[in-house]
Design brief:
Two copies of one chain form a homodimer. The first copy, chain A, is of the alpha+beta class. In chain A, strand 9 and strand 10 form a beta hairpin. In chain A, helix 7 crosses helix 8.
Amino acid sequence: MSEAPSASPAAEEPSFRVPAGEIAGRLARLQEAMQAAGLEAVFLVQTVDRFYFSGTAQDAFLFVPAEGPPLLFVRRFAPRAREESPLAEILPIESVRRIPVLLKERLGRLPARLGLELDVLPVNDFRFWRGLLEPRECPDASPLLLRLRGRKSAWEIARLEETAEMSARTFAHMREILAPGLTEMEFASRAEAYARGLGHAGLLRVRGFNALGYPGHVLSGPNGGRPGMLDAPASGSGTSCAFPAGAGPRRLRPREPILVDFGSVKNGYHLDEARMFAIGGLPPEEHSACRAAILIHDRLIAAARPGVTAGALFEEALRLAGEMGLAEAFLGPPGHKVRFVGHGIGLELVEPPFLARGHKTPLEEGMVFALEPKLVFEGRFAAGVESVFVVTAAGGRLISRVPVDVFLC
Amino acid sequence: MSEAPSASPAAEEPSFRVPAGEIAGRLARLQEAMQAAGLEAVFLVQTVDRFYFSGTAQDAFLFVPAEGPPLLFVRRFAPRAREESPLAEILPIESVRRIPVLLKERLGRLPARLGLELDVLPVNDFRFWRGLLEPRECPDASPLLLRLRGRKSAWEIARLEETAEMSARTFAHMREILAPGLTEMEFASRAEAYARGLGHAGLLRVRGFNALGYPGHVLSGPNGGRPGMLDAPASGSGTSCAFPAGAGPRRLRPREPILVDFGSVKNGYHLDEARMFAIGGLPPEEHSACRAAILIHDRLIAAARPGVTAGALFEEALRLAGEMGLAEAFLGPPGHKVRFVGHGIGLELVEPPFLARGHKTPLEEGMVFALEPKLVFEGRFAAGVESVFVVTAAGGRLISRVPVDVFLC
């Protein structure tokens, strides 16, 4: 079976499909893991998990037994689900109350031990499904699902590289449009509009129910030195106290560090990248902080070999920052530091594993990370860099195609 | 106490604040409702609910007892929470494990009957908080919170009118930039970028864990006739099967109906509006469908008086569509119709009450709705209109300022 091509720029109809072989491999690994965990079935409600195992994001519910074919119950809209998904069993339903009826018809009975996505499923939804499907036990299936999603296939790496290509063009465009007097919001939104023209879906997928998925996080000068609501080294001003994070109304000025952290998504696959920009050069301290972040970035990627633990990479980042006398600013100002220097990324902007203190997960080939060493000088500025890389036998290999540099425009 | 002004266009720092009197009134109504419901306290985790009752969206947890001052526990970032919120008791915490300790210190004991947001709180979070705060009972507080949020104050109506002003300028800009050959994505993203320059926060808030909050839903010609994953009369093509809704790569053509459904948010307050556009006129059937949607829109707004039920307005919409011979296309093609003709709106894009079949909620003064009569001709096109109005003693009054018309550009 050949790989589904991406839509050409001239196509007026989205033609991207997840190949049948990808879905079959994912389901085989899921069923193997379910059997090892003693799960009789999983019932997937969250869009991204469903998309990963079915190839469609239509309004549907995916039932995967530990053995035998999965069943996709489609509420809206079965003809599109059939075009998009290679699954054999796609069953339109007018009401979710049909699901237990159809399951009993097919399987003879309802499963006793049914995995659900307990990290995202709201309590009321959980109670509804438990009442309808009557399992004896409902263990949390999410850790298992996310572990499988963490290791990307060659096909997925190729998709991430397509997103990286779109993102590299977007960062190149940013260098052309950066100008003093633009507000952070104007700069961010022009970059976003450009990316949308190249196929950016406009909305980043985040798993946490309070998390925010906006693309352009632009923090200029002192806005880079502001902690806030985000679990990030700096939050910026945002547009109002109702949305107090990211780009705000401050105007860009010459000779100040501008942190541009930009999230991209194409065909469902995300990149998360940051570069420093400046108009007309930077003072020495600011410039040297930018270079220091790049040094940590480069060293960590080289060290990201299979078997190294996520926690060991984190400690190495701290050691390097300390060696350069930058421990105080590293990962946030004192008292407000984040506890990770990178995170997994793929169909969601932030996925496990985290490159974080004490995390014992060993890196594996095919794991993909967004690595983001950042320095925050409170009230003054931020300096940092973020790229996406894949773990290979020879160490990390950059998926990001944006030049690893400080952009002095 | 005077009203907090919005940031002037020249301000480089967001200055919007929720006035102390607003917060005090909301909390008084909440505590009255809690006493009536026998709730000892509520513990608010979701950002929007917390923002409504505290004035800040920092990373925090809001504890409101049935009597006495609320406590805001702030994880990140207390100095900003203190600037933004008029609450007296703002307590920074380094770990959430401090919360029960501080509650016992202040109240003598932990509450036995603690309301939580069970419609959004994921199972794992719920179990964590239940283990930490040890209530005997955890009823769902969300219906009560959402009922209070449903009736807007004069101050909130004024904020919605500011968003409406921004949105009217955005729709005027769309009329200038509409051109054949642009893709739906390009057109949507240019409109979004323009709105961002005026203070649009870029991201719409939606409550459902699988719901999507993207601003520009542009469906041209046959893309308006495509059902899909959305609980909407039409879903469009989207950018790929990973994101199969909204604007896609199709190019805009002359003499076809273009449905532009655009969500706006400023200072936390949303508008949701739709207008029909066409380049160089429309054929008679298409044009007449657009006018029919406007007729239903105008009649329903006039009929939206206090005491009329949400269900009665819905039935009136069906009756009008039937009278014009348009029942088959109304609210979606046969077999794929949505069950509502409008929804509440405010700090979230979609809020209860719904203008839906059988809903007995009587309209009250100050309730704000997005009304969206739409006609979908499967495989051919959509025609519709959407505006936001507030219920007054004299009937609905438009908050939307976009001319109620078909834009032939």
